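Thread: quick sanity check before group meeting

JM: Hey all, I'm pulling together slides for Thursday and realized we never actually wrote out the predicted structure for the chain we discussed last week. Dropping the sequence here so it's in one place. If anyone has concerns about the input, flag it before I start.
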Amino acid sequence: MQTITRKYEAKPGEDIRKIVLPDMLKRARLRKGKTQKEMGLLLNIPYQDYQKYEYGLIFPKRDRFLEMDEVLKMPGAAQIYEPKKRNLRYFIDHEEYK
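JM (edit): ok, ran it. Output follows.
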């Protein structure tokens, strides 16, 4: 299996979560073998809304994000909304997100 290393870079003042999260969602969804439409059904939202999260067009609120985490079981995902505990290097360096 080929490993692809992603490089996440934020411009000054840009929230790195908005760069990391879309890629994290897509990788977790594919790992679970779900389609974007299936994710919409599981989350009880239009699949187009889920697509927007995955494409980085919108950023989910905490409650919605936690629902996604329940379905996708993303390692360390709860930290993304905990600013004091947030360690985004975890997401960048974690094997499942490479």
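AS: nice. The two ends are 12 Å apart (CA to CA). The mean pLDDT is 77.
JM: adding both to the slides.
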